[in-house]
Every structure is written in structure tokens, then in C-alpha cells.
# Entry
Amino acid sequence: MVMTRNRTFSALLACLAAIGSQAPLSPAVQASPPAGGSVPCQQFVSAIKPLKIGFKWTEGPAWDPSAQRWIFSDLMGETEYSITTTGDLKPLRKPAGFPNGHALLPDGSFVVAQHDRTLGKVKADGSGFQVIASRFQGRKLNSPNDVTVASNGDVYFTDPIFGIDGFGPMKAKPELPFRGVYRYSKGNLSLITDKLDEPNGIAMNSTGTMLYVSQTSNNTIYKIDLSSYRGSPLPVTPLFTFKQIPQGHPSARASDGLRVDRSGNIWATGPGGIGVFSADGASLCSIPFNDHVANLAPGGADGRSVLVTSADKLYLISLHRPF
# Structure
């Protein structure tokens, strides 16, 4: 039964992708939503629809509660945008330093990880950008990629080499001998772990004691126990490996962004789309997509919407209950 539902939905997404590949629309033009078909992951999801199409590579969404909209990146388009649940799109910052992940800070501004090798802070309207970190122990960061913020304002981010390996302003050799996960706190940068070879997406549980980090090289999500952090790099523990979603976009290396809902479930992007996993790593359900899904972020006035960034498109997931 699940296989049939997933196949129908995937076929609808495939049709939309085919239209987009033949004649890309301006981001300001709303994409035609798929019609009919059963919705996958029905214990959580009530509806899924395309929101916009025609970007270069969408990434890094985060909800702005003050303006009731998401902030997100067109990474390779070097543009930072906002978009509402109804699809009202507005460019905020360009050129934007190949922006990727965003996260809301306690003061209402956003921290942004950029593939120009910087971690920055920007106001919700795209103004006032400033670099807050670009080096660790005197050496340039690789390319800050994704980011999450603890309740006390501490910033955690991943630093793979994607930006200096072709997905940034220029190729370069890394100055650091590892690809780290860092904490930025009160102006200081500290290394949380150097044990991952390709850290990508990052999220935190509700208590702020556990980090979850996806590693693209092996499609595995790891957990890091922050309660034991005393300043020295921490070990990582594999939690689950993301298996290919049937009828979804095939990829050998696809684990990317992730989020944790109020029940502690992990919504992870990976081979074929989005998978929902329990806190102990058990697979609960999956949502196939025809293109690579880079990231997702909950939002909406009632917390029942999720913005999905997928290649040149944006999708909107509606939920039965708040994320």
C-alpha cells in the first residue's frame, strides 16, 4: 500500500521536474501544483505541493516568525530570498557570498553559513550582513555549510569542503587538516568534533544536549553528546544509515539537511527524498522526491508547514499537527 502511494506521488513530481527541465520558469512565477494522488507519510503529512520553480540550487531554509516567512538560499545563484506560505517571493541579498544554511538567532537576526568560507550574521530583511567567523586557529575555514542555534544563542555549524571544491566562488586547497563541526559562542570558535570526513546537515534536540550531523559520504546520521563537551573534540556515534527511498531520486551520496520535531523525530534528507526517523534511529516513513532534496524547515503561523528545498524548486508540506 505504501509502495503504491509513493509511486503515484513520485510520478507526479517527475512530471513537474520534466516541465521545469524543458522550460525553467522565473522564481517569481508560481509552479503548477501536481493534481490528485495519495500523500506519503500520512501519519504526519496532510498535503504536499510545489511552491516555486526556476532557481539554480535552493538550500538553507529557516522560519522568520516576526515576518511570517522563510529565509532561504539560492546557493549557486548567490541570492538570499524570503518566501511566504502563499508563495510571495522577495530577494533579500545579492550577491550573497554563496549562502547555504540559515538559523534564527535570539535577537531575531539570522546566522548564515556561506560557501565563501565565512559564517555570518544578517538581519531578517537581508541588511546589515557581517562576518562573525572565518578562521580557526589562524587558518581559513573550509566552507561553512549548515547551521543550528541552541536556546542560549550558541551556534553550531558544519564545515565540509563543498565550497572550495566547486560549489563556491573559487576552488581552493583546504588550510585545515580536517572537516569539522564547530561551536561559535560569545565570539569564540571551538571545535566540537573532527571525526567526520564529510559533515553536512546539522540539527539539535529540544534540550540542547544532542547534536545530529549527516555525513554525505556514507549517508549516515551521527549523534554527538554535547553534555560531555569540555573543550576537546568529541567522538561521534552512528545513529542510522539512510537507505534509498523507492521511487525517489537515485543517489549514492545524498544525506543533507535535517530537522528535529517536537516529538524528537528526525526529519532527514537523503537518497530519494525525506525520511522520518525516531530518536533511536528507527525508520517511520518516507517521502519520495524526483530531485535531490537539500534541506527543510518547519514554519507557518500554526507550525504546521514545512518548506522543502529541492534542486531548482521549493515545495510546501502541510502537517496534521505542529512540527
